Structures are given as C-alpha cells and as structure tokens.
Amino acid sequence: MIGLDSLDRAIVRALVADAQQSAGALGRKLGLSQPATWRRIRKLEDAGILGGRRLRLNAEKLGFGVTVFLGVKLATKGRVSLDDFERAVSAIPEVQQVEHVLGLYDYRLRVVARDLPDFERVLRRRIMTLPGAGEVEANVLLSEERLPGPL
C-alpha cells in the first residue's frame, strides 16, 4: 500500500467524477503540469489504486427497463464446482455482475431485462437451469443513486 497525499486523493476524486478528462485538463484544475499529473496517475495505476476506466451504459435507453438483483443459493454445496457455476452464469448476457458473497445466499447477480416478462424468461430458462442453482430471491431495482466513495 502506498501513502496518498492530498493531490493523489484529489486526482482520484476527479477521475471518479470524470474518467475521460485528460492529464493536462486535470493538472490545470489542480495546479500541476501535465507531465506531473500523468506521473501521479501512472503511480496510482501501478499501485493498483486506479484499475482502468469504465464506460457506464444507460441500460434503460438501450431497451433494458428492468434491473433485478438476485440472491442465488447453490442447491448442492460441495457437488457443484463454484467455477462451473460462475463460468455458466457469466455466459448469460443479461447477467451484468456476479458477486460471490457470504451470508444467506452464495451469489448476488445483477440482471437486466427488457421488462418483467423478459426477466421471467431469463430466470426460468437460463438462470434456474444453471449447474447447482437452487433457491433464488429477486429484488427489483426502483432507483439508483451513485454516491461518492470514501476519498
């Protein structure tokens, strides 16, 4: 772990807000030169603090009006390989995120669908037929707010 100074934290906050901004533009905001800003960004990347930049798609505008979080409990613990389940569930395009969790369920999935009948089709024909899939609990997303992180 590396120590972060106030400029490093400011760079991380600025990139979280807008990861597309150039090192020159970011440097001007923070009172740094473009090369100095770029060196700091590279240092943060090399340390694993910055792990790339992601594009956030608007699922609703792409025709996916429903987002559901599924808790999935594996039916046959020890008999089905976690790798097999993860590989199979990751191949379903509607499954946007797969998290192996500790608690009531073994996995938490973020699933998008065009509407509730489409979600039901994905659930019945794709997710419930996965190796080891057992009990599921669905929570439909009503709204989502992006909150700033601890930096």
Describe the structure.
The protein has helices spanning 6-17, 23-30, 34-46, 82-90, 116-127; strands at 66-74, 95-100, 107-113, 133-140. It is an alpha+beta fold and 151 residues long. The chain folds into 2 domains: 6-46, Arc Repressor Mutant, subunit A (Orthogonal Bundle), CATH 1.10.10; 66-140, 2-Layer Sandwich (Alpha-Beta Plaits), CATH 3.30.70.920. A 4-stranded antiparallel beta sheet has the order 2-3-1-4. Strand 2 and strand 3 (107-113) form a beta hairpin. The longest helix has 13 residues, at 34-46. The radius of gyration is 20 Å and the shape is elongated.
Features:
151 residues, alpha+beta, Arc Repressor Mutant, subunit A, Alpha-Beta Plaits, four-stranded antiparallel β-sheet
The tally of beta strands, per DSSP, is 4
Amino-to-carboxy terminus distance: 15 Å
CATH H level, superfamily name of the largest domain? Lrp/AsnC effector binding domain/regulation of amino acid metabolism (RAM) domain
Summarize model confidence as the mean pLDDT. Answer: 89
CATH first level of the largest domain? Alpha Beta
Total discrete domains: 2
Spatial strand sequence of the major β-sheet: 2-3-1-4
Report the uncertain regions.
none
Q: What best-fitting shape do the alpha-carbon axes yield? A: elongated
CATH fold title of the largest domain: Alpha-Beta Plaits
Structural class: alpha+beta
Largest sheet: 4 strands, antiparallel
Strand content: 15-25%
Known CATH architecture of the largest domain = 2-Layer Sandwich
Summed up, the helix count is: 5
